[in-house]
Write a structure and sequence with these properties.
Helices cover 50% and strands 7% of the residues. The protein is α/β, with parallel strands linked by helices. The protein has a domain of 178 residues: P-loop containing nucleotide triphosphate hydrolases (Rossmann fold). The protein has a 4-stranded parallel sheet with strand order 2-1-3-4, with helices on both faces. The protein is globular.
Length: 256
């Protein structure tokens, strides 16, 4: 099983779509929001130790029940997607739960997408602008803090589960140099850019929402980096707050 994650607007959807072109994975499907929600509920409920001990007898029994429910949901999804050799799911919000997935799923692997901070933040600002949300210095700093939190999660996962973790830079998806690392990381995988976005289960159409990327559903020949929308002062702030975290990850990648 492979989970794809990374900071929002870092290219996780494109990476997931590429991974799903392999013959041994499921077709491309949307984000696994319901599954992520189950994990959110489990983590939140885990904080109520006394409640769970009284209800289920012990925290271990509570965890066993939760893990069983989550495993059942994944089993049903696996069957729904034609029982692929490798079930490949994606959600940027999954990253915070990877330490639990270690315990729940034997042999799980993680593909994490990273993108230069200025490009990631610029894309996030584009979304906020479409939502008519103001982006002042305070909002920009908050975006940078959130991005660094993702970088920290990825760094910890890389340190604790090195053999299970593949970090892919967004640019390597665009220039197609990510194919070999993916093949090395997922045995039997065969990413095929000509099959990008093909799916029996999902109608890949631009629904016009603020979060929809201009690259969504587009052929591989059109993939390219978009110009960022940052002002010079915004770019300086983002680089000051985030660039060092990003460089640390790019210099310690697995498989690249």
């Amino acid at each position: 099983m492979v989970f794809v994650s990374g900071p929002p607007r870092s290219g996780t959807t494109l990476a997931h779509a590429l991974l799903c072109t392999s013959n041994n994975t499921n077709d491309y499907v949307p984000e696994c929001s319901y599954f992520t929600g189950m994990l959110n509920n489990f983590v939140k409920s885990s904080r109520h130790v006394h409640h769970n001990e009284d209800l289920y007898g012990s925290m271990d029994l509570f965890k066993d029940l939760a893990f069983e429910q989550i495993a059942f949901a994944l089993l049903q999804l696996w069957r729904r997607l034609d029982s692929p050799e490798v079930l490949c799911l994606k959600d940027p919000n999954l990253a915070i739960h990877f330490r639990w997935l270690h315990q729940m799923i034997s042999g799980v692997k993680y593909v994490l997408i990273i993108r230069p901070p200025t490009e990631t933040i610029s894309s996030q600002i584009t979304v906020m602008t479409k939502q008519n949300r103001r982006v002042d210095d305070s909002a920009l700093k908050q975006l940078c803090q959130q991005l660094n939190a993702y970088y920290d999660l990825i760094s910890k996962l890389q340190a604790t589960a090195y053999e299970r973790t593949l970090i892919i830079e967004y640019q390597s998806i665009l220039d197609q140099t990510c194919v070999k690392p993916i093949k090395d990381f997922i045995p039997g995988s065969s990413p095929d850019y000509q099959k990008l976005w093909l799916s029996e289960f999902t109608s890949v159409v631009d629904r016009g929402g603020p979060w929809t990327s201009p690259l969504y559903g587009k052929p591989a020949s059109t993939l390219k980096t978009r110009a960022d929308v940052l002002t010079e002062s915004q770019r300086t702030l983002v680089n000051t707050m985030c660039e060092a975290h990003f460089v640390t990850l790019t210099t310690g990648q697995h498989g690249n």
